[in-house]
Amino acid sequence: MTEQLVNLLKKEFSVSDTQVTNVIRLFDEGATIPFIARYRKEMTGSLDEIVLRNMRERYDYFLELSDRKETILKTIEEQGKLTPELKLSIENCLEKTKLEDIYLPFKPKRKTRATTARDKGLEPLYSWLIALNDPAVDITVEAAKYINEEKGVKTAADALAGAADIFAEQIAETAEYREHVRQHYLTKGIFVS
Fold it and tell me: Lesser CB count within 10 Å: N end or C end of the chain?
């Protein structure tokens, strides 16, 4: 049991370190919630079954989150892409959804339109478009440089479409954008059935 977990549960349930430590120890020993509530009041400070059940759910959630973090860290490290900042971001993450958003760019992927565009050599076009600061520039002139019949890029429009696919994937895999969209739907979304 980590100090971080004890502090999280302590804060969330407004209980003491000792109460959290004792409750977790009892959970780990296999004690049931009714047993703890009835026969271990002196260890828990008389926490009732509702608080104990909620604490059990959060404890299980954090254990699953911790296991997932280990798996993600190992996977990204094997890819050679684990930076100290990324590792810190993963270790400090307290929500499964946000953790998966952070992991998404590193997750092994199936073949997508963006990977197909990369295979066709369109990533430099995408990079050029992102860096473009002059709206007067005719992008089709640059896109025409990427026409390659052998790779399936027959027109400048095909090249631009491939670059757009790469752009769409980059946006979809950025954790901050995903969180913004999720919050927007939660606060302003309307559910119709």
Answer: C
Report the distance separating Cα 88 and Cα 85, nearest Å.
Answer: 5
d(CA 115, CA 94): 31
* Global pTM value: 0.68
Kindly tell me the burial class for residue 121, based on how many C-beta atoms sit within 10 Å of its own C-beta (0-12, 13-18, 19 or more): middle
pLDDT per residue as tens digits for the range 65-111: 999 999 999 999 999 999 999 999 999 999 999 999 999 989 887 88
Give dist(CA 168, CA 77) in Å, integer.
26
Task: Please give the backbone phi and psi of residue 81, each rounded to the nearest 5 degrees, phi first.
Answer: -115, 10
Q: How far is CA 165 from the centre of its chain?
A: 21
